[in-house]
Amino acid sequence: MCCSAGAAAAGGATGGVPRLCVTNVQRFSLHDGGGIRSVAFTKGCPFRCPWCCNPENLSFEPEECWHEKLCCGCSARPDGSRDANGAPCDTPPECCPAAAKELLGQWRAVDELAAELLRDLPFYEESGGGVTVSGGECLAGVTRQRAVIALLERCHAAGAATALETTLAVPMAVPPDRLVGACDAFLVDFKIADRARSLAVTGIDPLVRDANVARVVAAGGRVVARMPVIPGFTDGDACIRANARRARELGIRRADILPFHQLGEGKYSSVGLDYEMSGVPPLAEADVGRIVSLVESAGLEVVVRGE
Ligand code: SF4
Ligand code: SF4
Questions:
Q1: What pLDDT is recorded for position 32?
Q2: Engineered SS bond to 217: which of 16, 251, 274, 284, CB 3.0-4.6 Å?
Q3: Residue 123: CB atoms within 10 Å
Q4: Residues 216-239: pLDDT tens digits?
């Protein structure tokens, strides 16, 4: 053995110190909340959207992935068999000489993570940006929810604007006023509008989301509706209209339209998952225009995001 396999630390808190399992901190992002932002991607989601572009953030624990293109086959199993991710060897990620194996997700103390996110504070101030916590579903589970709020509170106290990307379709343990005190913008998903279909396809209950949005809005929170437009799932006129109407009824003023893309496709096989949206083409410009008109006619300000 070239080295010993590193044991992944488990759990969301040690000795009372809140921690989060994070796959990545993306600096200088221009998408997730306005201005220049640093985005922390928390790992784990209880839902399963077939179009999810972050399959590496579905499981709640650190996990191995394998990048086929980087693999030089240096320590392939003698019998030619493969592991669950398709890798040809049993070498742990930290010993792979080609970085073809990678450990996704690291448990990070909230204080240390906040310090990293705050490194770019001057850029946030200049650009109207800030810190965004995304996922996965970053509010899934009580322990994680508290850790996320603790992280946002630290960033906020240091002067950074804060945002959450979330379904808000999870039971909330943190009271709305504390949530709103820590978070300047809630970027909330509006996906399949029909409740039965949403539950069947993704597991997301729009009624749970709506109840939480109503509480956040009542506490003075700013909510933006994020509408991923997914062929065959959320691109029909009825779905778009229903989502736009619901957002307005809830007191939301802006919708971000997120046209379908295939950026997540390559990640599925690396974590041993099947991708249901393979080969589905991106939306035509005319479709995006149609959707923008529908949402605007419901009285929402619309921003089309090119992510
Ligand atoms: S150690 Fe890395 S490069 Fe070598 S066979 Fe395994 S995955 Fe491929
Ligand atoms: S809620 Fe978000 S992270 Fe979870 S499966 Fe759906 S798209 Fe992926």
A1: 64
A2: 251
A3: 16
A4: 999 999 999 999 999 999 999 999
Could you say which of 1.10.8.60, 3.20.20.70, 1.10.12.10, 3.40.1280.10 is the CATH number of the domain covering 21-62+105-304?
3.20.20.70
pLDDT of residue 190: 98
Closest to 257 in 3D by CA, of 232, 283, 282, 226: 226
Nearest-ligand number for the alpha carbon of 54: 2
Full-model pTM: 0.92
Among residues 86, 103, 87, the alpha carbon closest in space to that of 24 is found at: 103
Ligand 2: residue of 43, 52, 233, 260 to mutate (most ligand atoms within 8 A of CB) is: 52
Give the separation between CA 252 and CA 286, rounded to whole angstroms: 25
Q: Predicted confidence band at 306 (pLDDT cuts at 50, 70, 90)? A: confident
The two beta strands, 106-109 and 17-29, are antiparallel
Give the number of whichever ligand sits closest to the CA of residue 270. 1
Ligand 1 pocket residues where CB is under 6 Å: 71-76, 87-89, 91, 96, 98, 100-101
Which atom belonging to ligand 2 lies closest to the Cα atom of 204?
1
Q: What is the pLDDT of residues 52-92, one digit of tens each?
A: 999 999 999 999 999 999 999 999 999 999 999 999 999 99
- Interatomic CA distance for residues 14 and 26, integer angstroms: 25
> Atom 1 of ligand 1 has which residue's CA nearest to it?
96
So where are the chain's domains? Answer: 21-62+105-304
| Helical spans, DSSP H, in the chain | 110-117, 121-127, 142-157, 176-182, 195-201, 206-218, 237-249, 265-270, 285-297
| Amino acid of residue 306 | G
Mean pLDDT (whole number) for 88-115: 96
Ligand 1: centre distance to CA 77 (Å) = 10
> Closest Cα to residue 83, out of 265, 266, 271, 264?
271
